[in-house]
Structure formats: C-alpha cells, structure tokens
Request: fold
Amino acid sequence: MLVAAFYYPVGTVLIEAVVVDGAVTLSVFAELLRDPFYFGEFARLFAGESPLAVARDFLSPERRLGIVGFTAYQAALSTVASVALGLPAAYLLARFEFPGRRTLRSLTIVPFVLPSIMVAVGFVATFGDNGTLNAVLRALGLPPVDLLFTLEAIVIAHAFYNAPLVARVTTAAWESVDASAVETARSLGAGPVRAFYDVVAPQVYPAVLTGAALTFVFTFGTFPIVLALGGFQLATVEVFVYRLVRDLSYAEAAALAIVELVISLGVLLAYLRYEARNTVSSRGVRPLPRKSPFPDSPSISEVLSRLGLAAYVVVAGLVFVAPIASMVLASVTGGDGALTLDHYRFLVDRQQTGAAFQVRPWPAIRNSLTFASAATLLALPMGVVVAVLTTRRYRGRKLVDAAAMAPLAVSGIVVGLGLLRGLVFGVEVAGWRFAATGAVAIVVAHAVAGYPFVVRTVAPGLEGLDRSLIESARALGASRARVIRDVELPLVWPGVVAGAAFAFAISIGEFTATVVLATGADAYTMPVAIERFIGRRLGPATAMGVVLLVVTGLSFVVIERLGGETRGL
Amino acid sequence: MGSEPGAEEVDDTATRPAVELDGVTKRYGEATAVDDVSLRVREGEFFTLVGPSGCGKTTTLRLIAGFEEPSSGTVRFAGESVAGVPPEDRDVGVVFQNYALFPHMTVGENVGYGLNFADPPEGVTRDERVDELLELVDLPGAADRDPESLSGGQQQRVAMARALAPGPDLLLLDEPMSALDAQLRERLRVQVRQIQSELGITTVYVTHDQEEALAISDRVAVMRDGRPEQVAPPRTVYREPSSRFVAEFVGDNNVFAGRVTDLAPAERDDAPRVAGVDVGGETLRVAVGGEGGDGIAPGDRLTFSVRPEYLRIDEGESRVRAAVASAEFLGETTRVTLGWGGRDLLVRTRDPLSGEVVVGFDPEDAHVIGVDRS
Reply:
C-alpha cells in the first residue's frame, strides 16, 4: 500500500531524472549541479573550479546563491525566526500558570491543520498594499511598507507556521523536567541560573533541536507560501519544480526534485540519528511548579522578565492573530472600506453563472470534502498498520520506521509529480494498462501526506500499552490479530480518531500535490481555488479562506476533544 | 493434590510431569537469561521459582507460557513438545505482577474474555461461569464494576479469576503479589493456595520473596544466574541447602568454612561421625553424616551452616565468645548480630543481650553444604 502510494511514485520521479531517451544517464544531474542558476557559486565547484576561488567569491557581497542556495538560506532564516518566536512561547507555556494556558497550549496545534495557502491569503490581507498593516500605518500618518514579495514576508509566514511547532515540542520537554532534579541541583549548591543551565537546558535543548530540524525540513520544501508571497522572482526549489512541471520539462523537474529530496532527507536522517542517541525517557515526573504572571510583590528581575514576556505577547499576537483576523476582515470589507458581504455573494454568483472553465466554489468545497473523506479512509488503515509495525521489536525495525515516516520529509510536489507521471499518465503491468484519474491520484497523495500523522497519534499509545495486557489476552486464547481488535485498538482509540482528524485536515489544506495533479479542469479543491482567486481578486480569496477556516476549525475541534494535546505532535 | 510439604523427593518418572523443561536455554544477544535448565513440575503441584532479580525465573515462566521461545532445549506439556505453539493455544492461565486488567472492560468482561475462545464447562452459561469465578475469588457481584475502582488486592483476585475462567491446564503466576503491602500479601497467599488446592490445578509461581516461596509451595526451585541451584520441598531447602547461595538466600543463616582437623568415630552405628573444623582458630564440631560425609578426611575444607535459631546462649558443644554489635527487635524474638573474629554471627533470642556473650551449637544442628577434598 505504502509502496504503491508513496515509493512507487517517488521511484518514478527518480527514474525520470536519470533515464533520458531510454538510456540511463546522470547528465541531467550534472547539468543541474553545474548551473549557477540553481546552485549559485557552488555550481562552479561541481563544474570543477578551484574551491578556493569559489570560497573567495562566496564570501564577497556579490555572491550568487542560486535557487537551491536561496532555498536553504530562507529555510535557515525561517528556522532561526521560528525558534526565536517559539522559545518565549514555550517558556510562557511551560513555566507560568494563567487563565487560558491550556487553551493556548492546544492552539499550538493549529498550524498543522491550517492550510498553508490560507496562511498566505492571511498574510496578503495583512501585509499587502491595502492590507491591515498599511491601513494602520496610514491611519497613524506613517509611510506604508511593502512587505509582500520580499524575503521578510516569507520568513514571517514561515515563523507563523513553525514557531508553534517549536513551542509545542519544547514545552513538552520542559514540562517533563523533574522538579526534584532541579531541587537536587539547588540543594547541592547551584544557583537558579546554574541549575537551569545544568539540569533544565540539557533536557530542553534536544526538543528545540527537534523543532528546528523539522522547521528546516518543512521550510526547505515550502511551496504555497512562497508561491503566494514570493512569486517566481523569489522562487524556492519547490516552486521551480512546479514551474518546470507546468512547462512540461519533466526530466529537469524530476532531477531538481531529487536534489531537494536528498537535502531534506539528509537533514531529517541526521536529526533522527541524533535523536536516537539522546532519547531520555522520563516518566512519572513531578513537573516544575508554575509561576504566576502577576506576582504579589514582584522583585526587579521578576518585573523585567514579565515586561519582556509582555512585549513578546504583543509581537506574537501580531504575527499569529493578525493574518487570520485580517483575512476574516478583508472577506467582509469592500473596496471602499465599508462592511459588505459582496465577496461571499461573488462566490454564490460565480457558482450560478460561472463558465465551465472558471473556478466555482461549490465543486471546490465538494471536492475538498470528498477527497478528504476518501484520503482519511485510506490513511487510517495505513497509519494504524505502520504504527503497529513500528512499535514491535524486531530486527530492522528502525528501517521500517524511517521508511514509513519518510513522507514527512518528501514534498508534495515530488509525490504529486510521481503520481502524475506514474499513475495518471498510466502504467503498464503485465500487459494491462492502469491509469488513475486525477481525483484518485489526489486522494492517494493526500493519504500519503496524512498517514504519518495517524502514525504519530497512534504509535505513542501503542508504545505505552502495558505488554502484559497483550500477553494476558494471548494467554486467554486470543490470536495476535484478535488482541489488536479487542485490546490495543480500543485502548488507543482516541489516538486513532485524532489521527483521522489530522488526516482529514491535512487533506483539506493540502495544496502542493493537489495543484500538480489538479491540472485538469474539475479536480480542484478549496486551496487550489484560493490560489486561482488570489492572483485576480483578494476579496473572494479571503472569503474562500474563511470557508476553509471553518471546515478546518471543525477538524481541529475534533482533534482537541479527543485528546490531541497529549499526543506526540 | 500436591505432595505433603516436607515429603522426601519422589522419583520424578513415577508420574508423567505436567510441565517439563529439558535443557532449556534462552539467550538475548550475548546475555544468557536461562542457562540449560531441566525441571519437572508434577501434575497438581504448586511449584515455585524463587531467586534474586535477574536470576531468570520470570524468563523461565515466559518460556512456559509461550511468550518466549527457547534458544535451545524443549518445553513439554504432559509429555508433548510445545515448541512453536503460540500462547493462545497452550491452555495456560497467566497472572502478572501488575494484574494487566483490560481497563476498557468491566470486571465481568475481563473475567469472561477467555470464554470468547474456550467454552465454559458443560451446562454452565458464560455469565454463570463469570459469577462462579468471582465467587471463588471472594468478589461476588463485582461483575459490573470498573477494574480501576478496585483496590490492588481486589484487582489481583480479578486477574486470578480471569486466568482461571477458561479452565486452563496450568496456572502461571508472575510475582502476583509483589505490588501489595505485606499484610495483604500474607492473607492473599493463603487464599491463592486454597484456590489452587480446591481446583487441583498445576501451578508455577514466580517470586523473589523466599519467605513467600517457603510458605506457599509444594516444591521450590531456588534459581541463580539462569540455573536452579536446588529443587526441593520447602523444608528440605531450608534445612539442607545444597549450596552456600541457597543457604544464605533462604532465611537468615550463619555460614562457616574451615579445615577439618580431626574426625571422631560415630558413637553408634546410626549416628554420624563428628568432625572438628578449624574456623578462625576455634575448633567447631560438626556432624558429617549422610552422603558425602563418609569420605571426609582431615585436611579437607568444609563449608557448613548453622541457622540463627540453633545458636544458643551459653549452650551447645562448640562455643565461642562474641560481642553484641546490633540488635533488631522483631516482636516475638530479637535478631542479634554478634561480632566474632571479624565475622558476623546472627542469633535469635527472646531476652535482650548486651556486651560479651558466649554462643554455641551442637554438632547435629550444623548442616554441611560442601567439601573441598584436599
């Protein structure tokens, strides 16, 4: 299943990249690596120039990064920004008690279910020429800023997306620091700062690294945000692969996609190796006591640290709340600034009167819901099976683990491209020709994108199950399969449902693979519709975004109700 | 029914063993958890594996249950090899230390779970069988309760009822009481033994608590480093430990070692000879009867033990002068540690002791553990 849905398409892409006119060749790669357009100054390294000369040019201010270099550069910047924005949040969430803390903590899961294209719309609504930010600046008599289509906009959008991830994993690690470890350090003579440095920090920083590594991988493969906020002039690898696909240069697209794949898999693998060596299991710890944000008789340092946090809260509020709020606001604001429902009316009108080639809202919503339901049904058994496989102990489990989680690091473009070339254009097996429709391919791509989240929500529960429960059932006469049905699944059921909600939400918001596969006229989904609207009119795009927000919000409620908070992600 | 506690070893081949381990070894990579173990558990017997943690007792139980397969050797049930038979087809009931009750099922559903795969006895419905077992473990009417609402002892009994409901041939208990407090443990072990006797079910019990092992078992296997050091009824293990390890692991003991200096001939034909053994400059007199005692000659190195209750104040043939080092008041008796020439001697007394005392023992109260021929 996984092989057919993921490894076969990705393999197709790989073959595509090395087979030209029926002959195996690495020439496509060689050309790619030597092309300064992609690799900047590094291309000259691959072309055989002296490393010293390259290094000298690289350090000069006029260095060229190339597409790949720029992609890595923006990913690194985004990672730094995400960590910078995420860490104070983790500190706040892990160490303070205040009303709404639990809600806020659960809200950090939102990015996983927020469609990236919607975030992009939100950012356009906030930072665009007529966006909220400039409206505020104008009202204050300040000159407007043009953030759209700049690196800054992309980095801020990425931080919006990934800082909560950093905050989430860090908070979890911080909360599992045993208070008695800190108290022991204090009793042995360490001051509070020293105790933090010696006891808390070593337990927290692997989590920060986790967040950073994932952020880098996600932002390296970023697509919708860059497409919407950067355009082609600030293209990342992913965007360029998409453009090459649109231009039908599949071999070059495939080769470029493979380069991207190697880099992000490399980072993920390096991280996984690191994590394997540094896993500390801490169970039954007594967490550190939480502080009040408003102490009764504050000391100077307490006041200062709280002022710092207050400033952070303002910035965070701006970054996280403004885009969503602006999007909702923009969807009900007319060109003249008055409140209006015109944009929604436009959607309804378009539905009734739109021509066949135009993007209509209802098919988009219908497709999104249909694809999401189908993808969830597909992702669920895949995820559960993989979760069961990865929680067993046997030789080569690590390999299965890595192979099963690889889709997290592989961008939708690659999967989409593989499915397009492999399934949609047809494949011959034993004389039969199989060709899937775009819709089927989209469902498969979404299932592939979603099932790692099912694994992530189900596996910890399975892992945590007491082995003697399973053995008791076995001794009582139940077969292995029967034990899964009678004992394991019922006990991890909340995780299964949360995983389903994840898969559903991921599918609803998935844009990258869909836009590759939905080149046909009628298989577009809400995110694709938004992207098609966004180029022409912002209003309907924001209205569509609000519809999408409502649908994903419902999925979020389901996840939250079923204890997604306590799960791995 | 199990043999009378204290009965002498009978020939194992007289009855076909319910469970037999034949040269069973279990390795995990480099480590050997169970090392070439051969054991026979008789039909209806209450057989206990006891030993310190890491001695391989739980692994042995898991090999019998089928949760692990031996690296080499054979496990047989009633003479038939069970190699490759999965746990669900072995007709065993297992109770774990943490009870492992299914938290998503009621007590009744837990007890009845095994009846999904095995029919209740003729003429009894499933519900009746569940009630019957809950009554057996003294928890009538608990069927609709939630396992988590029960106390530890009650959960343990539910686990017992669940294991017994399908009518297994063999009951396997893996430290079922070690999570309970001492008093409850003592009450429950009486109950477990009663239920076992009532049903006559062959039982293998694993514990690290030697006192529990002595109290509950027909026979005990004292295990160390993956092997049984001694397999015998509790009284035999207590009175005639076969090794220094067993002597010191089971109950309090004083173990001595020294050279034989002289041998007095037996006073009567049926009485043992008495050896004089040089321990730390004192000559202690030890009866060396029975097997192995015949060949002992002066110059041999003898290891022997004397239980604290046989060391008496100002009495006994061999006496030494020792100083009181510490005393623990246990209620009925006081356990006193004496220092004698750099050794610790354990004594049990009713009267408080202090300062210097003279303790002694008679030759026949000493038990010879081993002889190193010179």
In short: Confidence is low (pLDDT under 50) at residues 564-569 of chain A. Chain A touches chain B at residues 466, 468-469, 471-480, 486-487, 490-491 (CB under 8 Å).
